[in-house]
Amino acid sequence: MRKYAVAVLLVIALTNLGVWGYLNRPVDGVAWTGMINGASFDPSQRDSDPLNGKFATIDDMDRDLALLEGKVRTVRTYTALDGLEYVPELAAKYGIGVLAGAWVDARLGKNEAEINTLIKMVRRNSNIPRVIVGNESVLRGEVTVQQLTRYIRRVKEKVRVPVSTAEPWHVWLKYPELAREVDYIAVHILPYWEGVPAEESLPYLLSRFAELKRAYPDKNIVVTEVGWPSAGKTRQGAVPSLTNQAMFLREFLNTAQKNGIDYNVIEAFDQPWKRQIEHSVGAHWGLFDADRAPKFSWTGSVVDVAAWPLMAGAATLLALLPLCLFFWRWDHLQTRGMLFFGSIVQFAASYSMWALAVPVIQDYAPPKAWMFGLLMPSLALLVLVSIINALEVTELAFVRKWRRRHLPFTTDSCKTFPKVSIHLACCNEPPEMVKLTIDSLVNVDYPNLEVLVVDNNTKDEKLWRPVEQYVDSLRERMGDRVKFFHLPKWPGYKAGALNFAMSQTAPDAEVIGLVDADYMVRKDWLKSLIPYFENPKVAWVQAPQDHREWESDIFKKWINWEYAGFFDIGMVARNEANAIIQHGTMTLMRRKAMDEVGGWGEWCICEDAELGLRFLEAGYESVYVQERFGHGLTPDTFLGYKKQRFRWTFGGMQILKGHWRQLLPWSNSGLTMAQKYHFVAGWLPWIADGFFLIFVMFSLLWSAGLVLWPMAMKAVPLEYLPYVKLVEFDFPLTMFAVPTIAIFVAKLVHHLFMYSTRVNCTWGQRLGSAVVGMSLTYSIALAILQSSYKKSTPFFRTPKCEDKAAFTKGISMARDELLLMLCQWFAAAAVVLWTNPESAFYARIWAIVLVIQSTPFAAALVTSMLSAMPSQALRTAPALAAQVQPAE
Fold this sequence. Notes:
The chain is 53% helix and 10% strand. By secondary structure, the protein is an alpha/beta fold. Among the domains are: 2-22 and 307-366 and 375-397, no CATH class; 32-283, Glycosidases (TIM Barrel), CATH 3.20.20.80. The strands form three sheets. It has an eight-stranded parallel sheet with strand order 1-2-3-4-5-6-7-8. A seven-stranded mixed sheet has the order 11-10-9-12-15-14-16, sandwiched between helices. Strands 13-17 form a two-stranded antiparallel ribbon. Helix 15 links the parallel strand 9 (420-426) and strand 10 (449-456). Helix 1 (2-23) packs antiparallel against helix 12. The model is unreliable at 713-727 and 872-888 (pLDDT under 50).
């Protein structure tokens, strides 16, 4: 078997490396070996911030210009201030010309300084062949065409070189009066900003250039900004990447040389400070990175992520290390099961490595602080839950042999009959229901048995007195085999009542049985399971919870099968590791073990599961027999169903907080690693639901920001930037949004697949169980969040035999979920309708995420409305009575 495991590991590792290599295969294109006509020049360094007065020094400028010597003929500057007025003098040392610019915006005083300094620069330096007055000033709406024209005329009067202003192609076409004022047309044609895919960008650029030529045949046209970003967010079909930048520039430079197009590439060096005005993409237009290293080769092939072999190797090791441990111990699994689980783990490791590295490499939005602070932990938790689900599938669907499969004994094989004391705790229960449970218990075919009925904290005498009278009537015939106790005010909730029952248990009782007040048990229950106690290591024997009277009610039918999934899937997997959850019904416990570990814990509202964990910590074993020996009643309403799951979740978190030290991998607590794993892994999906609710609230707030304060791209006046930076919102990464969709689909597929292989129900019942399971998400999340700051919560008894809720009650029981669902639907519609068309792709992805996030809340509404519908068959006491024989 281990030879197969080694082969599987090799296949997974080699496949993973092959996929990484395929996704990062080099891209070849036309080479460029000449000099570049011009490149935009900003000497700002990695830590510079011109918006806040932190400028490059003269030495910085000199070093940068020296680096460009022999590579570019001219450099373009955008301002005549902030030290850039020295660029022409410095550039002359390296034989570089300067396309000098003056920045023009709404600040009139600054405009005057820019114009006057530009004129002085031209008069003082002979390496300025032409100038530009204003950069996209009309596009930003900071000056009118008439205002800009006056600035252009002033400069033309004072200098003897051609004068123009720089605007995108569509501005030139819109304002022919502006074109008449300039000596040449300085045009920006940047296909990325218009969402044109990289492979279509050069034809698009040439078509726009030709359109301007036709409009102004007598004007010389210079493309003063042309380029492609190497990183940042996709803009419609335009994908920023290193390969796209290299291939676009190579093709454009060759085409420009062939067709005599004058141009200026944007830009020489990456500018990190431009994130403030153009978000992350603005920082990555340079031919050199911010550290002044060339970003790509002008000849030969180019690869987007040069470090991919290191990342692929790290991802392979990250997956193989735990897989080696698992496969070495899993001699009970089929080879295809190893391949399935190994592939899932390897994919998770590779995706995690990619998710960690690519945002840093590509410098996406939102800022890394948001990404690593919220998105990455959420994604990590989702990936972890997916691996847990995959492990469950592997252990149950691809098992070669069962390690701990327990079957019921035949009744004639039970030769010894240790005394069993069955404890029945009840509180505010319908008396007719409790009577039926008592009848079924006293009719169990077992010769050495007592039944203790403990009613605690029931104030209404009409509820407990009939039960007492019924037990008294049975005692006339059965003696001390059945007893009733009423505790009018007793601490500790159910655990307190059960501890009281322990104090009243017969001294010679060796096994304690526990049954809920709504259960009816089979006569062969004890004889079928008691023989397991012949093994002194067994602390308890657990049979599944099961239900009755659900067949004629859709709501109860669906929740019945949702319960069944846990007992036919989760408990079976846990039993293989001796890590089952003890449930407070249909369980038999060794009295000696109970005394040893201290009885029921009254501090925990899930006293049964907490006691089971203490049994395991004490070194005892459990037995799970997947046979239905008893059937109880399901909750009657969605509210009861939610509150029951809230209690289970809150109690689970109480257990986690109370036993976390014992669950640590390195703790010497008596628990095996497999037991620790199953207990922690069993709670993780609930914890994930808590994070899900946090993420839902975050996504609603973020959606509001996307609509009200969207990220400004290139059109924000500089004086407003400090305020815009405080409130701007951009769409989260697709690589974080898409997994939300994928994991939702994966969870649904996991549910349906496991039900099809392990639970004997129809497809409709499988889908129904998935719906009601999702409907509990909000309640589970609330329990998780409350447990983070509360130590305890009142014990909530799950009501049974309630009257059906009115139709309007169906809405009220899911009020919070309905509100959240409507908020998410509204947010999805608002994001699609009110965001910038240039962000349409991201808006659709985000809207899909919002709609999928609303699915659990929609499921809650559906489930609540189903629970409010009248049953096809009404439960009556006579109908219940017909299902059991009267007490003998």
